[in-house]
Amino acid sequence: MKTLNSVRTICLYLLALGSIGWLATANASKAETIEKLDKLVARGFLPHYQLSTVDSEGVRSYRAKAYVDGLVNITKPEPESLFAMLSLSKPFTNLLALKMVDLGLVKLDDPIEKYLPQLAGVKVSDIVSSASAPSNRKITVSDLLLHTAGFAQNTELMGLGPIAERYRKNDIFGLHCLNGKKQQSLDTIIAKLAALPLQTAPGVAFKYSIATDVLAALLQVVANKPFEKLIAEELFLPIGMNSTAFSVANDKRDDLLPLYQPLVKTYPVPGDYQRYQPLSIFKEKGAKVGEQPGCISAGTGLVSSVEDMQIFLQFLLNDMQLENGERYLSGVLLKSFLSHQLSSDLGPSPLSRSLPKTKKDGLSYGLAIHLQDGGVLTEPSTYDYLYWSGFSGSGFWFSADKSTGGIFVSQLFNSDQFLLPEIAENLGH
Predict the structure, then answer these.
(1) Nearest CA to 145 among 195, 87, 97, 80?
(2) Rounded-to-integer distance, Cα 181 and Cα 172, Å
(3) Rounded to an integer, what distance in angstroms lies between the CA atom of residue 304 and that of residue 251?
């Protein structure tokens, strides 16, 4: 199977974006930022977008824009429209894991082999010799939350390296999970994963990976319940997120937005045109994420709506307070979801080699952390905003003082625009 985009295609797309110079500058106003987003749609670089801001009381603003008169038919999205969350799934799984810790069902320093004995004794790949050696220590639950376990990411989902390629060949948390005729169980995939070495030794580096999917397999063992049922009952239901799930009911499929992929021309084309096409990575033409998942992927497989994300952000801005007045997490664990948790041994820019636009950004047990100018990761008072973004350019953020937050949804997969930092900076936080 071909990977999502060749390096050449990505480079061409980046050059095209750079040539127009439309990305928001650090001093752009809110109006200028929205105008530039509208231009990206009007000039055919985005099929559509949704942008919403919230505060602790509720929704402050909502805006949607779509390219509706082109050769590729685009339906203007609505707040209730369903979209593929892709990597935005990860913070929800991590939050559920912290809840299980709060309930005393699992500990952060537990070795994962306690719950997933298949992964006991997993070895570490030696890239130089193409051999593998015993790990220097056991993988912990905390490693899964922080992507320091040593796993790779499937090359079908932008992973790099020989271990990531072996994930693709063995169908380990790749495209099949997003849409597939036959569903693999988490146990089946973990068994295949156990036969492969780690990309790096546990604890030595942050590596964006399938760790969240492994965490889901662990949680369903801890709770003795299928993960999709566990997260619905223990997270989505208490918060009130009624549209978020791994699969979409038949009567809701018309509300499901399709994904698109960049369309790059290798010769100049005058004028404006749609620079994207319907996503063609699945075997079945026109298939959508959420219609028929091939596995339950806690790291990439959730489907949600802007309405549900507005509810989630309001929940975060109110310190995770539920309708009954109780807090979803206790104080220490709530703090761990909102403050940097990676070891200082990983350096001042631990995310920068794995995720774009993350120089000096930190990582909590569920979110990335962007600093104020001159800020340091050990001082939460110097945080600017917390956020997470996905392969399609979608993301959410909220200010460190929890006064405001926002959601940006764009269904271009995989996006090379990374607009979230500019949007978060310029729309107020």
Answers:
(1) 97
(2) 16
(3) 15
What the block records as the tokens of 75 is: 């339906």
How many Cα neighbours within 13 Å face the side chain of 260? 27
Structure tokens at 193: 């994963």
Rounded-to-integer distance, Cα 347 and Cα 129, Å: 27
Structure confidence by residue, pLDDT tens digits, 391-415: 888 999 999 999 999 999 999 987 7
Hey, what are 23's tokens? 């990305």
Q: Residue 323 contacts by C-beta under 8 Å, 6 or more apart in sequence?
A: 240
Cα-Cα-Cα-Cα dihedral sign, residues 315, 426, 91, 99? negative
Instruction: Give every CB contact of residue 84 below 8 A, 6+ residues apart in sequence.
Output: 178, 257, 259, 288, 289, 290, 303, 392, 411, 413
pLDDT, tens digit, 9 for 90 and up, residues 247-270: 999 889 989 999 999 887 656 667
Q: Return phi, psi of residue 111, to 5°.
A: -70, 140
DSSP letter (8 states) at residue 88: G
Is 352 exposed, middle or buried, given 0-12, 13-18 or 19+ CB atoms closer than 10 A? middle
Location of structure tokens 């801001």: 53
3-state DSSP assignment of residue 18: helix
Which of 142-146, 193-197, 282-286, 360-364 is least confident?
Answer: 282-286
Question: 């912290």: which residue's tokens?
Answer: 98
| Inter-helix orientation angle 186-194/211-223, to 10° | 120
Helices (H) and strands (E) in the chain, counts: 13, 13
User: Measuring CA to CA, how many Å separate 28 from each of 101, 106, 375?
Assistant: 42, 46, 22
Three-state DSSP state, 404: strand
Distance of alpha carbon 213 from alpha carbon 166, whole angstroms: 17
Between helices 90-102 and 331-338, what is the axis angle to 10°? Answer: 160
Token pair listed for 105? 């069902």
**CA 84 and chain centroid, separation:** 10
Q: Which two tokens stand for residue 290?
A: 């959420």
Single out the residue of 200, 103, 92 nearest to residue 145, CA to CA.
92
Give burial (CB, 10 Å; 0-12/13-18/19+) of 130.
exposed
